[in-house]
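Sanity check

After download, print the first record. It should look like this:
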Amino acid sequence: MNDKLSKLFGSSARIKIIRLFMLNPETVYSLKEISQRAKVPAASARREISLLKSIGLVRPKTEKFLEELKLKDGKIKTKKVETSGFVLNQLFPFLFPLKNLVLNSAPLDKEKLIKNLGAAGKVKLMILSGIFTNNEGGSSVDLLLVGDAIKESKLDRALKNVEAELGKEIVYAVFSTKDFMYRYGMYDKFVREIMESPHEKVVNRLSI
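Expected structure tokens:
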């Protein structure tokens, strides 16, 4: 059994892929999706999945679903689609201790996060909640960003890099400084919920 655990670690690609499956236990991912979501080369994804499959952490799974196709005459045709990929094996004997180890062994580099997201514009307030505070069920968002001249393309690139490290999509909200301060002053329900949930202000130039 220890041989299995000894194979689990050894590369950053492996950690990213394990995190992806641990945080999305019901999702079936193709090799292409694994490569894209974890931001690792396709060859690395193929190699790591082969290893994880050999020790039983992930297993092959085929999903069937209906896809609607719009024909030239405007009619809708329903087609059965079958897709194959891999899913977390929830019967893996070391699943829970491994999950705790993986999710806590590589804490988020907050300085890097602030730098990357801060480059998207003039950030005045950055609040981490949800997945960042192990409180996914208690907050509607993982990240609240307040600022001006926020460039969506830069923000999107930065978030995708963070998501690759975390292994999960980030739910976020962005407000201009004026809009946020209005909502904050009016005790807006959405803003209040975030402020009352476990959170961390990693950037706070609004002194709130």
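If your output differs, re-run the checksum step. Summary of this record's structure: Strands lie at 58-70, 76-88, 122-128, 143-148, 172-175, 200-204.
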